[in-house]
Amino acid sequence: MKNTLLRTAISALASITTCISAQALAQAYPSRNVTIVVPLAAGTGLDIVARVYAERLSQALGKPVVIDNKPGGSHIVAINAAKALPNDGHTLLVQTSAGLAINPALFKTLPYNPVADFTPISLYVKSPFILIVSPSLPVKTVNELIAYAKERPGKLSYSSPGIGTAPHLAGAMLNQRFGLDIAHVPYKNTPQSISDVSTGLLQLGFAEAGASQSMIRDGRLRALGISSLTRSPVFPDIAPLAEVSGVADFEAVSWHTLIARSGTPPEIINRLHDEMGRIMKTPEVRERIAGLGLIPIDSMSQADIQQYYRSEAEKWGTLVKKLGLEGSQ
């Protein structure tokens, strides 16, 4: 009886000690600057949003939060940089559907595992694409475009900033879901891929709202629909394809998520998750994000974020395989 009581007391003391240690760890964090590694160049929408919340995260944590831009290699440069540093919460990483959902199917081998190597903190933005057409194309609605394309199989072309990019796959999804045969023409960058639609060299494409909004507003591009399930704050009059096409689950978006290396103490992850949830609810942050043509997302639980990752990886992975691009890079 005495031994049982002793073991119970020791177990209770260990639990209390662990709890106190966890609380102390969360309170002591951060002990130095926090770095957020961003996989795109400074000045991009992804970078601008990260800088907006980094400033507020710095205020909440009481330490500088700095941005380290590491573009290149389909996000792999940034991922490798973050993966090589300690999992103590002082190095965080911004990722999108490219790094976490598309690359695993597109690349033959990857130097990281998106599930095993990283832990989600916050999924905070969806980046929709506008279905744009040349003003010379005689269509003004999504359904008119579908009918026009079906009458001309193989005669129309859509642009994207590269094979395997989200705009490329959005166009492929359009083909697949509506039984179309629209050829893909990859470019090396977004501006040229959009410009050639405006001049009529190509007929259509999916473009980021921020990159295309000025050309839409001045009539150099015609917007038919948006690839998200909800409307864009920048273009509230442009209806989602899911709403106007009869395909209620059509969604082809990128997204922004803040992650940390696996093994980062859960107390630190939870604190960052809570702080990001609070920051992303502030009206000024949401307005800044919306002004870039992006859609702010209400805070999800970490379990829900992981489920979203899985569903996106399955969706894009299945499409990559159907296109014959699995392991092509």
Overview of the molecule:
With 329 residues, the chain is α/β, with parallel strands linked by helices. It has two domains: 29-127 and 253-322, Bordetella uptake gene, domain 1 (D-Maltodextrin-Binding Protein, domain 2), CATH 3.40.190; 129-244, 3-Layer(aba) Sandwich (D-Maltodextrin-Binding Protein, domain 2), CATH 3.40.190. The protein has helices at residues 2-28, 45-61, 76-83, 97-106, 142-150, 166-178, 190-198, 209-217, 241-244, 266-279, 283-291, 302-322, and strands spanning 34-38, 65-69, 91-95, 118-127, 129-133, 157-160, 183-186, 204-208, 222-226, 254-261, 295-296. Strands 2-1-3-10-4-11 form a six-stranded mixed β-sheet, with helices on both faces. The protein has a five-stranded mixed β-sheet with strand order 7-6-8-5-9, sandwiched between helices. Strand 1, helix 2 (45-61) and strand 2 form a beta-alpha-beta unit. Helix 2 (45-61) crosses helix 10 and helix 4 (97-106) packs across helix 12 (302-322). It is globular. Residues 12-20 have low confidence and may be disordered.
